[in-house]
From TrEMBL, chain A:
This is ATP synthase F(0) complex subunit f, mitochondrial. Subunit f, of the mitochondrial membrane ATP synthase complex (F(1)F(0) ATP synthase or Complex V) that produces ATP from ADP in the presence of a proton gradient across the membrane which is generated by electron transport complexes of the respiratory chain. ATP synthase complex consist of a soluble F(1) head domain - the catalytic core - and a membrane F(1) domain - the membrane proton channel. These two domains are linked by a central stalk rotating inside the F(1) region and a stationary peripheral stalk. It comes from Strigops habroptila (Kakapo). It is found in: Mitochondrion inner membrane. InterPro entries: F1F0-ATPsyn_F_prd. Belongs to the ATPase F chain family.
UniProtKB/TrEMBL annotation, chain B:
The keyword Hydrolase does not apply. The lineage of its organism: Eukaryota, Metazoa, Chordata, Craniata, Vertebrata. It comes from Strigops habroptila (Kakapo). This is ATP synthase subunit b. F-type ATPases have 2 components, CF(1) - the catalytic core - and CF(0) - the membrane proton channel. CF(1) and CF(0) have multiple subunits. GO terms for molecular function: proton-transporting ATP synthase activity, rotational mechanism. Subunit b, of the mitochondrial membrane ATP synthase complex (F(1)F(0) ATP synthase or Complex V) that produces ATP from ADP in the presence of a proton gradient across the membrane which is generated by electron transport complexes of the respiratory chain. ATP synthase complex consist of a soluble F(1) head domain - the catalytic core - and a membrane F(1) domain - the membrane proton channel. These two domains are linked by a central stalk rotating inside the F(1) region and a stationary peripheral stalk. Signal peptide: none annotated.
């Protein structure tokens, strides 16, 4: 494919934001889904967030507030099936 | 039985192990130093973290949408999403919403009021920590520099070694000279004493010989004077005396 030759960057090494929409499934398929790979991905993600927002001289509010907001959103998503019954209208 | 199997398989497994690659005198089974070099000294911590707007949304979101939609784009997107969630009741408004509104308002009021003070306090703690570490570092650097100064001074002192050795050599030469002269004096004294002894001995011997000879001669002379010779000599002496008195009377 032309992508593999362009700029000598392989598909599996490209970052997510550089992947075009049509190549997304193939890009996802090439990722490392072994437990070690997933653990590595989690560690990388954590390190990226940590070094960007928390491990600084003057850390701000955003560092932890984003984590708490994410927790709130995830817990809302997990409890949506219970909240569905408290909707005010039946048809939207 | 399984242990026997393992024991049988062990030599074959060992033989199939990779032969160690001799790198110079090192025996390594894998290449060394493959990872990138780590920075030393470590780069300093960034001053501020990533920008976050309203405490919830990173700045990258706004920058991502700016080329296509300008400044108001992200806000319009946010408003649209909120209205969509509300209208489709993906977000359900119930008693928890009221609780959330109250809690959030209190939190935001607290942050707005006490935020800067807490931030200043945290910064002060950080500054103290950094100042302590820095003090340790400067102290050790100063100590090492003082040591370097001492070392240089010692090196300068080493140059004066030649003077020291000259003085010491002079001292030693003087000591040797003094010692030599003392011994020379001793030798001279001793030799003089022995020679004096010999001289005294000879003198004594001669003296004794003289005395002895004189005594012997006197004794023999006295012995040889017979009584008859005595009488003759006495009368001769009287005659001489008479003549002398005559001549003395004549002159006087």
């Amino acid at each position: 494919m032309c992508v593999s030759l362009s700029a000598a960057v392989l598909l599996k090494d490209m970052k997510l934001l550089d992947v075009k929409l049509g190549q997304l499934p193939s890009w996802l398929a090439m990722r490392d889904f072994t437990p070690g790979g997933i653990l590595g991905a989690i560690r990388r993600g954590y390190n990226r967030y940590y070094t960007k927002y928390i491990d600084v001289r003057k850390g701000g509010l955003g560092g932890i507030s984003m984590v708490l907001a994410g927790y709130v959103v995830i817990s809302y998503i997990w409890s949506y099936s219970h909240l569905k019954h408290e909707r005010r209208r039946k048809y939207h | 039985m399984l242990s026997r199997l393992v024991l049988r398989a062990a030599p074959a497994a060992l033989r199939s192990l990779q032969r160690p690659v001799t790198v110079g005198v090192l025996h390594a089974t894998r290449p060394l130093h493959t990872s990138k070099q780590h920075l030393a000294p470590l780069p300093p911590l960034p001053e501020k973290g990533g920008e976050v707007r309203y405490g919830l949304i990173p700045e990258e979101y706004f920058q991502f949408l700016y080329p296509k939609t300008g400044v108001t784009g992200p806000y319009v997107l946010g408003t649209g999403l909120i209205l969509y969630f509300l209208s489709k009741e993906i977000y359900v408004v119930n008693h928890e919403t009221i609780a959330a509104i109250c809690i959030l308002s209190v939190i935001i009021y607290g942050i707005k009021k006490f935020g800067p003070e807490v931030a200043a306090f945290a910064d002060k703690l950080n500054e103290e920590k950094i100042a302590k570490a820095q003090a340790v570092k400067t102290e050790s650097i100063e100590g090492l520099e003082a040591a370097i100064e001492q070392e240089k001074k010692e090196q300068w002192r080493v140059e004066g070694r030649s003077y020291l050795f000259d003085a010491k050599r002079n001292n030693i030469a003087m000591l040797l000279e003094t010692n030599y002269r003392e011994r020379l004096l001793t030798v001279y004294n001793e030799v003089k004493k022995r020679l004096d002894y010999q001289v005294a001995l000879q003198n004594l011997k001669r003296q004794k010989e003289q005395e002895h000879m004189i005594q012997w001669v006197e004794k023999s002379v006295v012995q040889s004077i017979t009584p008859q010779q005595q009488k003759e000599s006495i009368s001769k002496c009287i005659l001489d005396l008479k003549m002398l008195s005559k001549s003395a009377q004549a002159t006087a």
